[in-house]
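Two proteins, back to back. First:
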Amino acid sequence: MPHTLHYRPVTTVLPSVEGKAVVLDAVLAARDARVARQQAMLQQGGVLLSLTLVAPGAVKRSPLLDAIFAAALDALRPYVSDARARQEAVDDSGHHALYLLDGDARDWKKQVIALENRAPLARLWDIDIIDRDGKTVSRRDLGLPPRRCLICDDDAKTCARERRHGSGELQADIARRYRLHQQALAIAATMRQALITEATLTPKAGLVDAAHNGGHADMNLALFLQSADAIAPYLGDCAACGMTFAGQPASPAMLAAIRPIGIAAEAAMRAATGGVNTHKGAIFAFGLIAAALGRRLAGEGTATLADVQDGVRAISAGLLAELQQSGDDSAGKRGYARHGISGARGEAAGGYATVTRHALPAYRQELAADGNPRRALHVALVTLYAVNDDSTTLARVGLDGLRAHQHWARQLLADRATLADETRLAEAIAAYARDCAARRLSAGGSADLLALTAWCGQHFTPN
């Protein structure tokens, strides 16, 4: 790329921190009432999950704390969907939710600890698990160290007891964590829009669009739109998870951390589509990008596209080795074994260089020429057809079919008169799309890279 491209974060507004100061007696009374509610629910039998917020200072409820509590409820929803009883309460003395659950208390404690460690904001959620005998399961019971202080790396209870950090410092950290949460949500929203932009671009060859199904008998545009909605929150979770690695070098440990999120995203995708794989590759690509960007934003406050690429390469350092391992007989592994085509793993290991070296420069050049994003995306798509060793295309039509597909695209790229005319370009792609549909040629890998191109083109700028 000729210029350093900087991430342009979505502008957000921090909710107000103003609220009514509560005296200590009211706080203690609220705590006693909460314990009474816990004991009453435990009489029904089961394991109790109790949620409160970390809210230092005299103000226990404010628009900011309300928003943090709402985020906690959203995060807990998949865990407590089968709760046998629940109570959620908010008043000037604070926020509290109770859920009566089945299962083993220690297993539940492991799950909520993992949740508390998944995002910077989750450090503000105080989730207790109380067993059937009324005993709170502690981190120590699981052989884990106590929770760390918001500000330093010491025991949180020690810092609170000794009042090592002032109210202003603590409130500033709470605000910082919520701003990171807002950025993670914004990343999810913009990635969702990029997936929709890719899906609705029409015409496309070998892909579903608004006009046809591209040789995919089990897919249509509506499924892609439903899928984009379903997976977007998980991309935000990947960004938030990446943020927890701020100050640490990017590494394959981040991949291990976000893989469960990716698995959950794929399950949500299949639930939304009736089992159809619409966005598995996009979940992988966008999840890696989101994690790398989240880490950089949390640690440095800014990010360039090169920074994000470097992060993705470090996160993906072990992916190519996976292609050489025995195990599942996937199309990606077969393509690598027979033809040396590394597919989605190779793209990740290279930091999505196909996008930054080819598709994104083409998109930016064409957009600068006439300001037409639709034509620019079509040129970027044809560029991807020409240079991408798409493992999906390989699986559908073989190596000769892939090379013929690339040859068609190179010929079209050489025809500047057609490229410069939106109508002629669309007609050329539509004619080729009919041929691809007849041969059941799919370019799913290029679709994922086109969505990344659209997202990068929108959110990384020279200044």
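And the second protein:
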Amino acid sequence: LGLVGSEMCIRDRSYTTFDYSDLSLSKSGISGDEELIVQLKVKNIGDKFGKEVVQLYLTDKESKLKRPTKELKGFKKIALQPGEQKEVSFTLTMEDLSYFDPGYKKWIAESGKFKVLIGSSSRDIRLKEEFDYASQQMVFTAFDVNTTIREWISYPETRKLVSEVVLPAFKLMMNTGDTPIE
């Protein structure tokens, strides 16, 4: 292990250390099938030649389904002489943001906040940045008697129906003791 500034970093098998810096995203948000370019700089701050595997992970902060906290979406191996610095670039697409939804039996790219995590491993994250994604994918949900209120309000289209129709009907039922629909 080595110390870089005030941060601990793991030495590569090449017996040198690397500094990660200047993480930037091409946009603060994307929509539909737009691409997001992720760039950063990696510098060999040790005194020996070394190779580093720069890894990009994504975290979906608002997914309806349970997803891993870090999903590996890309990696690049670079070789640097002592003092040398290189720019590393990744391109994220709608496919990188998608997950397989067993209920719909298809890949879904959901709107929400995502976090880009950059590091030399999943346990050694050095840089982080967030962006928004606005999906343009149409997803239709089948509701039935087993659908929970939580599921109803998790979709913008049915949230309005719950607030304008279902909740007033429940209030009416509670006040009069009658069922709202006969």
